[in-house]
Specification:
The chain is mainly β. Helices cover 4% and strands 59% of the residues. The chain has a 26-stranded antiparallel β-barrel.
């Protein structure tokens, strides 16, 4: 705040006019006269019922006094203007305003450098904060409030406020500070804080909203409570630190933090990047009497526009840390890694090195220690030649598993032809894989493959006289051939079965990774239909259907051997309807031999606002599962949210959530109950006083994991 508001009509011209007026009327020390609009052309417009001036350059104004210029306005019953020391002293019914502050007071003293007022009420225009103080002093954009209360609630609805013997509002630091602060909620003191700080506007250091959680301790087989108090440090524009204090009644005090920093370009070493360090530490567990800790650190560097370098270390003190301490995290394998990646228009190169820690009774997985991959694109006139090399050393901490190195090389030719509106893509490939295993065996595998894909679009315009809709039909057919070789002697390092549905039925690969490369001799055909609005801006209705005809009925399983399959595959069907706030999606795999649906998925979502959501889902696959979730406004301030996830095959609730959220102009309350099949059962309470403490993201993120698009505003 600029306090140089004194540039009054205490200029030479005004005082010369006043003195001339006094001498002309032969007045003594004080002369009285009406001063309303006496000198309107000066820097300050002054109005008063009565005025007096003495020989010491003190000018007294009485009755409905008003001072106004382009920087401030002052109204009072009595004002003294001292031209010698350039001060304003006002009393009785004071109302002061400038571009940042509204103030009422019993008395006020104003100089070029400082404002002091007694028995005040105040409001800040930028932050909507208001309150009262026995005394307020303003110096160089710093406001010091003595015996004060402070709130960002509207003056007519002061739901919460801070009372303190001393509050400092520092606009230079964008921060507020209070000593011996008491937080009052609906007039009731609820929390004493020896020293409190908060951010006035935007992001800044300060207390985040504390939260309260009840949980189930699996070791003690009893309920416990956890109080979380987070504090955010806005260190600089490119770095910050979040400190967390979690007191668990069954375990003790868990201290944690997350430090984040952006990395700016450094000469020729790198372009940009970021660094994050996270930790949790429990000095002495009440149950085990051991120190427990967690650490996760990430460094991401963009060496140039095509090359990136990443490191992650992820470790905990013991395998039961997530199970007994940080039970919201169900990870069973922690992966630390180093990754170097280069990606350009015609070259992809990757280096990957991993290390693993097994938790919660999990089983060890194969890690890449290390892995090198290169893919090169070589355009040959209209034909594209693709070369790939991949060598990986796989390690597993389970000594019963066979480790080894897999080296894979492939070459692929691809062309794209346009023949009478048909887009035709033929592909021809060959690959060779060598395994050198820890049991001193070596395995070689060579395979060839060929495919040709043809597709086109047909558009039917203006199918309705009333609505300018259009239909697009997209037929597609693909023939695929791949060598058939038994791979049952090859170890399973990184391959898993890919579930085939309407979205990937034309996919050649049936397994992830490279340990299983399936045979094929089939013809896949399908049709996609889209109903478009007249402007072709969005799809209103999509329908897809596809099926495969197998010329060779032998189908590879995950063990690498073959089972006898059927001539025709399942029929894969998907239909979706999208209109503004509503989305309906239906997918199913239909067995033409049994005339039964093998698997199906039904989902419906309505999103009318951040807290007005409804979702319904049903999945029938290996089992039957159903879920319903949503958030529903009860009043303009109160909303209910919840999610129910049930395994219909065994009638077990997988994971449920029920809660209430209340929000008004200056505070918010969330009460959420989580329960499920593990020790995630918990009751969470979060109370947020807006502009004083920001909401902790933990509870909101847990709600979003069960209620997709919760608090989001955009449409589909």
């Amino acid at each position: 705040m600029n306090l140089n508001i004194y540039k009054l009509a205490l200029t030479a011209s005004i005082w010369m006019s006043l003195n001339s007026y006094s001498q002309a009327n032969s007045c003594s020390n004080f002369d009285s006269f009406s001063f309303k609009n006496y000198y309107p052309s000066s820097d300050v417009l002054i109005e008063a019922d009565e005025s007096k001036v003495d020989g010491k350059q003190i000018f007294e104004l009485n009755g409905n006094v008003s001072l106004l210029n382009n920087k401030y306005s002052l109204n009072a019953e009595k004002v003294f203007l001292n031209s010698k020391n350039k001060t304003i002293t006002a009393s009785d019914s004071i109302l002061f305003k400038n571009d940042k502050l509204n103030l009422t007071a019993d008395s006020l003293n104003y100089t070029e450098d400082q404002l002091v007022a007694d028995n005040t009420t105040f409001s800040f225009k930028d932050t909507n904060a208001s309150g009262s103080a026995k005394k307020i002093t303003v110096t160089d954009s710093i406001y010091t409030l003595i015996s004060s209360d402070y709130t960002t609630c509207p003056t007519s609805k002061r739901d919460w406020y801070i009372s303190s013997e001393k509050i400092k509002i520092d606009e230079n630091e964008n921060s507020g500070y209070a000593d011996d602060a008491v937080l009052n909620f609906y007039g009731v003191p609820i929390l004493y804080i020896p020293q409190l700080s908060w951010t006035l506007k935007g992001r800044g250091s300060g207390l985040l909203a504390p939260s309260f959680t009840s949980y189930y301790d699996v070791t003690k087989e009893s309920k416990g409570q956890k109080l979380n108090i987070p504090y955010y440090f806005n260190l600089q524009k490119d770095k910050d630190f979040l400190l967390n204090f979690d007191y668990m009644t069954t375990r003790g005090l868990l201290i944690g933090g997350t430090y984040r920093q952006l990395i700016y370009p450094h000469n020729q070493l790198y372009d940009s990047g970021d660094f994050q360090l996270s930790f949790k530490y429990l000095e002495k567990d009440k149950v085990s009497n051991l120190s427990r800790w967690y650490s996760k650190n990430n460094l991401n560097l963009n060496l140039n526009k095509n090359t990136s370098f990443k490191i992650q270390t992820h470790r905990v003190s013991d395998e039961n840390f997530y199970k007994e301490i940080d039970f919201e995290n169900g990870e069973k394998n922690l992966i630390s890694y180093l990754r170097l990646n280069h990606s350009s228009e015609d070259l992809l190169a990757e280096f990957d090195y991993e290390n693993e820690q097994v938790l919660n009774g999990g089983t060890s997985i194969f890690t890449r220690s290390p892995s090198v991959k290169m893919t090169k694109q070589l355009p040959l006139d209209a034909i594209n030649l693709s070369l790939e090399f991949n060598s990986t050393n796989f390690k597993n901490k389970d000594k019963t598993k066979i480790n080894g190195t897999r080296s894979y090389a492939s070459v692929r030719l691809e062309d794209n032809l346009i023949i009478k509106n048909f887009d035709i893509t033929p592909r021809l490939g060959f690959n060779h894989t060598t395994y050198n295993l820890s049991n001193n065996t070596s395995i070689n595998r060579s395979l060839a493959n060929f495919s040709i894909n043809a597709e086109t679009d047909f558009e039917v315009k203006n199918i309705s006289d009333k609505n300018n809709f259009g239909l697009i039909f997209s037929p597609k057919v693909k023939y695929n051939f791949a060598d058939k070789k038994d791979q049952s002697v090859i170890p399973l390092f990184d391959s898993e079965i890919i579930t085939i549905d309407s979205y990937n039925s034309f996919m050649t690969k049936k397994f992830t990774g490279l340990d299983r490369i399936n045979n094929d001799n089939s013809l896949t055909y399908g049709l996609s239909t889209s109903l478009m609005d007249g402007a072709k801006v969005s799809n209103l209705l999509n329908f897809n259907v596809s099926q495969s005809y197998r010329l060779d009925k032998d189908v590879m399983n995950i063990d690498g051997a073959f089972n006898r399959g059927k001539t025709f595959s399942d029929i894969y069907i998907n239909s979706s309807f999208i209109k503004k706030n509503n989305n309906l999606d239906i997918s199913l795999n239909y067995d033409p031999y049994s005339n039964k649906t093998k698997s199906s998925l039904l989902s419906y979502t309505s999103h009318k606002g951040p807290k007005n959501i409804l979702g319904i889902g049903y999945l029938s696959d290996d089992g039957r599962y159903a879920n319903i979730y949503g958030s529903f406004p009860i009043t303009s301030s109160l909303s209910f949210f919840g999610s129910v996830n049930k395994n219909l095959s065994n009638s077990i609730d997988e994971k449920n959530l029920f809660g209430l959220a209340y929000e008004n102009c200056c505070w918010e309350l969330k009460l959420a109950r989580f329960d499920g099949v593990s020790n995630e059962d918990s009751l969470n309470l979060e109370l947020v006083f807006k502009d004083l403490a920001s909401s902790s993201p933990n509870l909101t993120e847990r709600i979003k994991s069960l209620i997709p698009r919760y608090l989001e505003t955009n449409e589909f």
